[in-house]
Design a protein that fits this description.
The protein has 271 residues and is of the alpha+beta class. The protein has 2 domains: 144 residues, Regulatory protein AraC (Jelly Rolls), CATH 2.60.120; 106 residues, Homeodomain-like (Arc Repressor Mutant, subunit A), CATH 1.10.10. It has 11 helices and 5 strands. Strands 1, 2, 3, 4 and 5 form a 5-stranded antiparallel sheet that branches. A hairpin with a 2-residue loop joins strand 2 and strand 3. Helix 3 packs antiparallel against helix 4, helix 6 packs across helix 7 and helix 8 packs across helix 11. The chain is globular.
Length: 271
């Protein structure tokens, strides 16, 4: 495309994007970052995303929608999808969301490009077994991304930690989403050596939303994923994610989703 005609929009799916050619600026939650040919970046559910295109750009987008994740024909399929969902959560929520995904190995870069090119060919030609081949290509791409996300954490050559503070803060929130005491302002201030009065301001400055909004939205999205892709009861989900009890989860869920958890699960499974 030569221009992005839509305003930045919020989507509710995981997405891997590779720039096949072109350059410009991508917009993520009101933040702006340059992109160029070969750039690979990840969008998580609830990210507001868009593009400001400088030179005509071709994208390849791999989107993991709820329909895709919900295609379970057997117990084995559901186990496979559950594992894939956990892998998606690991990759997308543990990478540095304020930079493009850094693929350090030239071999990995070439592998991802080759896999994506093969996926495009399979998708367009739709020959026998193309759906099974696409599944395998996706798994291989996720494996390569997972090891680069795991390897990206660390220190620079000078020994100084290179991870931005906001990324550490986001990662902490996601890792301890079920431990309310570790999400309190006073705890975060002490843990990250910030003034208690500045934590909220700092978080809003870099994400465009309040800390409490982020925590609530992330919890609700996790609840939606558990309802759609697991057999856990509402009570079990409430316990796992740190809600006071089932009724507390139900009130919060209805407030943000417009329906009860039971209604949401029923609607998802009847689509």
């Amino acid at each position: 495309m030569a221009c992005w005609r839509e305003r930045p929009l919020v989507y509710h799916f995981f997405e891997i994007v590779q720039v096949l050619e072109g350059e410009g600026t991508r917009i993520v939650n009101r933040n702006r970052f340059p992109y160029k040919k070969g750039s690979i970046f990840l969008f998580t559910p609830l990210d507001c995303r868009g593009f400001d295109i400088t030179n005509v750009t071709r994208f390849c987008s791999i989107r993991f929608s709820e329909i895709f994740l919900g295609q379970c024909r057997s117990t084995e399929d559901r186990e496979r999808i559950t594992l894939r969902l956990k892998q998606l959560e690991h990759i997308f929520y543990h990478h540095n969301r304020f930079q493009e995904l850094l693929i350090k190995s030239p071999g990995d870069c070439q592998m991802i490009s080759t896999l994506i090119a093969s996926m495009i060919g399979e998708y367009q030609q739709k020959q026998s077994y193309h759906e099974e081949n696409l599944q395998h290509f996706v798994t291989l791409i996720l494996n390569v991304l997972a090891r680069n996300v795991s390897d990206s954490a660390g220190t620079t050559a000078t020994g100084m930690d290179s991870e931005p503070l906001i990324n550490k803060l986001l990662l902490h929130v996601r890792q301890h989403i079920n431990e309310s005491e570790k999400l309190r302002i006073d705890y975060l201030a002490g843990h990250f050596n910030l003034s208690a009065n500045y934590v909220g301001e700092y978080f809003r400055k870099f994400t465009g939303e309040s800390l409490q909004q982020y925590i609530t939205q992330y919890k609700i999205k996790l609840v939606q994923q558990r309802l759609a892709h697991s057999s856990l009861t509402v009570s079990q989900i409430a316990e796992e994610l740190g809600f006071t009890d089932e009724s507390h989860l139900s009130r919060q869920f209805r407030k943000h989703s417009g329906v009860s958890p039971v209604e949401y699960r029923k609607n998802i499974r009847t689509v």
